[in-house]
């Protein structure tokens, strides 16, 4: 009797899922591709607004992207229906990007998804080209025939100005950190009580280290975003092989 009830309930669940338009396959769940393994491109991102309950051919594209990026189980069939699992996948993505978890594939979500894929592409390029020498070799071996030189000139100028400004901002914050450290240490050595003096010295170094971490973190984030913006500009300029952030790395040998 219990086996019959269980069988009936299982059939009912499968029937409900089928009406939602997203069929549950009975195959074993495979590993969701990691960020470095996914092959989706920004060109595949749907250019229309999609909502739960809608039937649209672009839903298949959206579902494939969500599965490749790990926001939707890959053991589900791709369909033209925007059902429960698609909505849940969009909500997961929206939360990961700090967007309102509406479950609707709107314009903001579309742009965020394209940006996310671009970041993944940049990650892949940097991963494949680990050393500056490899990047320079790639630049000299591959000549862009259709690139707009005027467009790239503006993109490079914009990138370099932003990097200079970012470095100057970092340098300014570090100068302040060193000045504060100097003043705090001088004040510490003016204290006669040994215990208080040592506490003051300890505090001065702690403040300096904290300020240095904050300044360096901000600079690294600024630099990464500048290079990411440049890679997007390069795409608009029809460039296929461009300079990369790894070129700024300098390896010191003894």
Count every helix, treating DSSP H or I runs of 4 or more residues as helices: 7
What is the top-level CATH class of the largest domain?
A: Mainly Alpha
Low-confidence stretches: 15-38
What is the chain-wise order of helices and strands?
A: HHHHHHH
CATH fold topology of the largest domain: Muramoyl-pentapeptide Carboxypeptidase, domain 1
- Count of domains: 2
Helix content: 55-70%
Can you offer a commentary on this structure?
This protein is mainly alpha-helical. It has two domains: 22-128, PGBD-like superfamily/PGBD (Muramoyl-pentapeptide Carboxypeptidase, domain 1, Orthogonal Bundle), CATH 1.10.101; 146-248. Helices cover 62% and strands 0% of the residues. The protein contains seven helices and no strands. The protein has helices spanning 2-19, 58-68, 84-96, 107-128, 132-141, 149-188, 194-236. It is flat.
Notable features of this structure?
7 helices, mainly alpha, 2 domains, 254 residues
Question: What topology emerges from the helices and strands here?
Answer:
Layout: H1 2-19, H2 58-68, H3 84-96, H4 107-128, H5 132-141, H6 149-188, H7 194-236
Helix pairs in contact: 2-3, 6-7
